[in-house]
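Cont'd.
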Amino acid sequence: MNIEVRGVTKKFGRFTAVDDVSLTVPAGELVALLGPSGSGKTSLLRIIAGLEAPDAGAVLFEGEDQARRDVRHRRVGFVFQHYALFRHMTVFENVAFGLRVRPRGSRPPGVEIRAKVMDLLKLVQLDWLADRRPSELSGGQRQRVALARALAVEPKVLLLDEPFGSLDARIRQELRRWLRRLHDDIRLTSVFVTHDQEEALDVADRVVVMNHGRIEQVGAPDEVFEHPATPFVMTFLGQSATFAGRVQGGKAFLGPLAVDFPGHPHEEARPAAGYTRPHEMEVGRAENGGGGLWATLRHLSPAGAVVKLELADAEGRSFQAEVNREQHETLRARVGERLYVRPRKLRIFVEPR
Amino acid sequence: MTSATSRRRVLPGFGLTLGFTLLYLSLIVLVPLSTLALRTASMGWGSFWATVTSPRVLASYRLTFAASLGAAALNGVFGLVVAWVLARHRFPGRKIVDALVDLPFALPTAVAGIALTSLYSPNGWLGRPLEALGLKVAFTPLGIVVALTFIGLPFVVRTLQPVIEDLDVEVEEAAASLGAGRRQTFAHVILPALFPAWLTGFALAFARALGEYGSVVFIAGNMPMRTEITSLLIITKLEQYDYAGATAIAVVMLVASFLLLGAINRRQSWASRRGATA
Amino acid sequence: MRRALTEPPLVRGALLAVALVFLAIFLVMPLVAVFAQALEKGFGAYLTALREPDAWAAIRLTLLTAAITVPLNLVFGLAASWAIAKFEFPGKGTLLTLIDLPFAVSPVISGMIFVLLFGRQGLLGPFLGAHDVKVIFAFPGIVLATVFVTFPFVARELIPVMQALGNEEEEAARVLGAGGWQIFFRVTLPNVKWGVLYGVILCNARAMGEFGAVSVVSGHIRGLTNTIPLHVEILYNEYNFQAAFAVASLLAFLALVTLVVKSLIEWRARSVASREEHVREAA
C-alpha cells in the first residue's frame, strides 16, 4: 500500500510545523523522515497516522483520501517515541489489545488471539516475557513490544516515531539492523522519524530530509549523501568543510580556493559556498596540479581507522580533513607544519536570488 | 507536540465531558452562588452598610479575624517545627505521626468541637490544670483560638513539608563549606527558601479559620459582643429569617476570603513561573 | 538519604519534643477524648446510645446522603478531568478556578446560598411553596449542600494525575482501533484508579462529616433531617455527653479509616514511583 501526502500544511498557533509538503512513499519501502528537532518530521508522521489533522492538504492511502477516516479506522501501526505501552497490562495483554477492542462481529475468538499474540511475540523474540509488565522490561524490550502491538492489528502501513531515540548507543545499532531484517521479511510500507543521519542512511530505502517544515531532498541514502540538493542537506548529513566566497565568469573564488565553475558563466558575481567532506581532502606537501590551499596543521588525532587532521587556512579559519592510516604513515605530518590540501570533490552552491 | 488542538480531536468525548462539567458546575456552584450577588445587589448600599457596621457584627468580625490570625500564627511556629521534624528526622512512629497530621482534614468539625470543649472545660483533662494556673480556655476567645489552631495545622505542615524535603542539601553544604554555622545557615539559607511556602500555608490556615464554624461553636460560648464568631451570627440571622442581614455579613467574609486566596494563587503562579525560567 | 548536615543532637531532640508535644495536645488528646468519653459509662451504655432510634435515623440519613453525593461528584470529577487533562481549550484556567470555588466558600455560607435560593423567602421560595415542594429543612437541601461542599474533591485529585500521565496511551489505544468507552475503561481508568479512590475517600469523609453547611439547611428535625454530626450536636446541647460522644465516635472511627486508606494509597504511590525509577536506572 503506498502513501501519498499532498500539499499538507500544519500550524500550531503561529508556528508552521509542516509547510506545504508533498511526498509519495511507494508500497513496501522503508522510508526515513530525517531532520533536526522542530523540522516538522514528527508532525508529518502524526498527520499521516491521523493523530493530527492537517490545516490544508490531504493524505492518501492507495489513492484513497483519509481525511474523513478517523485514526481508529485507518489501519495504521504506530510506534510511539516513548512506546506508550499500557503500564497496567502485561506484555501479552498489550499486544492483544488491538484485537480485543474490535467490535464483537469481527473480534477473533480467544484461542486465535492467543496464538496470534504468541506468534508476534516470537517474531520480536519476547515470547518468554509475555507475563511481564512494561515497567519490568528494558528499553529495547519495550520497543519491540510496542512494535509487536502495532503489528497485531495487521496494519497497512507502519509508522515509527524516533524508534531508537530513547535507547543507548549499543542497543540502538543492534535494533536497527534487526528492524531492517524484519522489514525485509514482512515488506510493510513503513515510515520512521529520526534526527540521526547515520540511522537514516543505514536503515532506510529512501531518506526524506526535512528542515523548517519543508522537504529539502528525497532520495536513496547514497544519493542524498553524495549529491545533496541543498547546503542544508550537505551540512546535516555528516561533517563538511565550508569555503564561502563568490562565483563569477565561470570561476568560483571561495576564500583561498579558486576553481573552474562553468555553472555560472555570467560576469555578474553571486555569493556562493563550496563544501567538502573531510575524507574527500587530499593532504600533501606539494602543489601538484593546484586547486587547493595551504593550511597549518593544528591538531592530529592519530588513533582509529582514519586519522583526523584539524587544519587552519591562512586567515585562521579551521576545517577538518581525514586520511587513512597508510597515507598517514607516508605523510607523517607534524603539528605546526604547513600542508597543501586539495579538495577532491567540491560541491558549490550559489546563493539563490 | 502532543497537543490535541485541531479541528478534529483524536481522543473522543470532549464535547460530552466539557458539556457535562459546565452544566454541573453551573447547577451546583454558579447558580446558587449568584443568588448571593443578586441578594446583595437588591439590598441597597445604606442598609448593607448599616448591617455590617452594627456593633454586634463589628465585634464578631474583630473576634473572627483576631482569633484566626492568632491561630494561624501559632500554626506558623509549631507547624514549621512539625514539618521540619517530619521531613528531616527519622524516628520510630514517624509514619503514624505523619498520617495523623491530616486528622483535622478527616475528623468532622462537630466531633473536633465537642472533643476540644470537653478537654478544655473547667473540669476537663486540660481545662482543670489550666484553670489552676488561672487560665480559662473554654467559653473564652482563647478557646476559639485553640479550635482554629486544630483546624489550620495541616495547611501549614502540608505546604511546608514537601518544600523542606526538596531543599537542596548541597546548598546547605555549600553554606557550611563557606564557613557558616548551622544557625547562620538556617537563618540566611533555609528560612528565606521556606518563606514563600510558609506564607502560603499561613494564609491558607488563616482563610480556613475565617469561615470555620463546627469546631468553634461548642467551645466559644457564643456570647454576643464577646465570643460570637461571624459564622454563628450569620446562622442566627438566618434563623430569624433576616436573609438580607445574613447576606450582607456573609458577603464581607466571602470577599475577604476570596482576596486572601486570590493573593495566594497569584503568588504561587508567579513563583512557579519564576521557577520555570530559573 | 544523605546526612551530611544536621542539627546538634540536643537541638534535634528539642525540636522533636516540641513537635510531638504539640501534636499530642492538639491532635491525639481530642481523638482519645472522643473514645474515652464514649466509653465512660461502659460498653453497654455505648451500644445503647448507638441503638437509639434517632441515632439510627441519623446514621441512615448520613449514609443515604453520602450514597447520592459521592457518585454524583465522582462522575463529575471523571468528566471534568477528562475534558481538562486530555484537551486544550481557551478558558481552562478559569474553569479550574471555578471548580475550586466551593473550597473558598465557608460552610455556613455554602448552606446559606441554598436557603437564599430555595428557602421560604428565597428566590424560588414562593414557587416551591405553591407546589408544596420542600427543599430547605428537608432531605434535598441536605444533599444539595453536601454536594456543593464536596464538589471539588474528586476532580481536584484526578486532574493533576491525568495531566501527569499524558495522552500517549490513549492515542495508542485509538490507533489500535479502540472506541471512546473502551479507551476510558481499559486504559485510562486502570491508570488513575488510585487517584479515583483517593478522591472518593476524601469526598466521602467530608460528605458524612459536614456540619456547618448541613446545619443551615437541615432544620434539625429529630429522626427526620438530622445527620450524624447534627445529632451529635443535639445530644451535646442536651448535656447527654456520653451519648453525644458515642455517636461522635462513629465519625472519629470513619476519620481514622480515612487516614489509614489515604496513607496506604500515598505509600503505594511512593513505592511504585521509586520502583519505576529503579527500573529506569537499571535499563
